[in-house]
Amino acid sequence: MMAPFSYLSGGVMSKKHFNAISCQYDELRGIHPPLLERLVSEAKITNNSRVLDVGCGTGADLFWLREATRADVMGIDASEKMASIARARLGSHCAMRGNAEVLLTGFRAEFDVVLFKLSLQHFPDPGQVLNPAVSVLKDGGRLAVVTARSNDLKSFPIHGYFPELDRSMAEVADSLHQVLVNTPFRRLRRWQQVEVELMHERCDESLLERVKQRYLSPLRLLSDEELRIGISRIERDLESDQLNGIRSVRGTIYLTQKESA
Ligand SMILES: C[S@@+](CC[C@H](N)C(=O)[O-])C[C@H]1O[C@@H](n2cnc3c(N)ncnc32)[C@H](O)[C@@H]1O
């Protein structure tokens, strides 16, 4: 049995996956301004902040954050294609392609906020990448990890349709929680956990299309047959009107602050 993170990062959910999905990523996932507004207030992002987004994807969140706050932003992403979109969107000096584990060592303690939004679970060793992430924070700087806790997963529209996936997603969520709360990070305050709305999901025919395109990375773990069976369950519930409207998908911001030396 593989450890949950190597399960996510070593195989199908590697760079290859994010390269393949990059062109459709914004359309399939979109941004959710209420979550970003919450990040601004919880992480205290202002026009004086320098913000690093680790695993920034296409840079859509950073673009929104920069427009909303005038903060100085920088993104890092391991997928060449995701990073290229981010560079085109933000400017080449505001996004870098490469593994964060390596790129983080090139920065001084210069950031007011370091953000991992739905990215930390894709690192083979999340505990290990957090140490360099803390060293690039200024004293008093804030570290924010946006993810879903296992209880949050019930709010995902795909929950219940792919039982194999429910188990592995919960296992990853629980492991990440353990890493965050149990690893003794030097100079970090205790984590606060803030419950948030991660996104809105339309539960109509368009959900079927998104699922067929494996819009959430864990869907990549399914065989074509497993995907087909889950899709037929979704179709059945859509027909009988048991899955309809807009669903509010829940998540959690883990937030902490770097203490002075
Ligand atoms: C699910 S996406 C999240 C993207 C964006 N933060 C968002 O919320 O939409 C995860 C991103 O993490 C990136 N990633 C995974 N491992 C990484 C690593 N070792 N270094 C940098 N980025 C990484 C992937 O390429 C991918 O773009």
What does it look like?
The chain has 261 residues and is of the alpha/beta class. The protein has a single domain (7-200, 248-257), classed as Rossmann fold, CATH 3.40.50.150. Helices cover 42% and strands 21% of the residues. A 7-stranded mixed β-sheet has the order 3-2-1-4-5-7-6. Strand 4 (111-117), helix 7 and strand 5 (137-147) form a beta-alpha-beta unit. Helix 2 crosses helix 5 (80-90) and helix 3 (33-42) packs across helix 4. It is globular, with a radius of gyration of 18 Å. The model has no long low-confidence stretch (mean pLDDT 93). S-adenosylmethionine binds at residues 18, 29, 55-57, 61, 76-79, 82, 99-101, 117-119, 122-123, 217. S-adenosylmethionine (SAM) binds next to helix 2, strand 2 and helix 6.
Bound molecules: S-adenosylmethionine
Q: What is the total tally of β strands? A: 7
Q: What is the overall silhouette? A: globular
Compute the number of helices. 10
Distance between the termini: 41 Å
